[in-house]
Amino acid sequence: MNLYERVKARTLRLKPSIKSAYMPYLELAGSAHLQALSDTYDMQLVESSKDPLLAKLAPPWLQRIAGPMLDAGDWYAMAILHEGDVVGRVWMALRVPHGPVNGVMNVRLANDEAYGFDLYIEPEHRRGDISNFMAYHCINELQLRGVKVGYTHLDCDNAPSVFWHAGVGFNTIQSYSYLKIGDRIHWKIPLSDSPRWGPVSRRGRHSEAPDERVDPFGNALLPI
Length: 224
What we know:
This protein is of the alpha+beta class. 23% of the residues lie in helices and 29% in strands.
């Protein structure tokens, strides 16, 4: 690849776009219906920058960011294996570093909350029981760590992901728009969050809560 092609490819990777997204949540205590029965897949935790699996779960730029977070216990990753090969992954953050230039949405978490990101399953494994297998182990591991509420974010136009999260039991707490530049910058557009007191608001979930007669977590992810 010559210099022109490299510059062109990099420019395309950094092309900005505006996305609309849901911030769904799951109260982990209500997820007992999920099962982890599978003879096909295995799960392995990645909790150290020295783990050789890290190179298979993240590109070099994310490895540099994730390494210190893993070693501090602020992040961990789950690798889903099939015959020894990584076919799925999900990253979990118990604390999120400030700033948009880290590839992670800048959310505000309480001590009993966690945020999942970069959930991915190889296309040839997207049918069958891998999704429930992954969900079960994500929820079980979070509960072992004392987490009561889990968050993630979903692009509104990603219908398969929206339906899967709804099937697991997620509800939505807010919707918002964000600017995406390549893989590294996910920057919430100011004043785009609804309601203003949620995990991607300036003050966090525990401030400016709505009237106590209203469900503080919002409504169903999909219309009933």
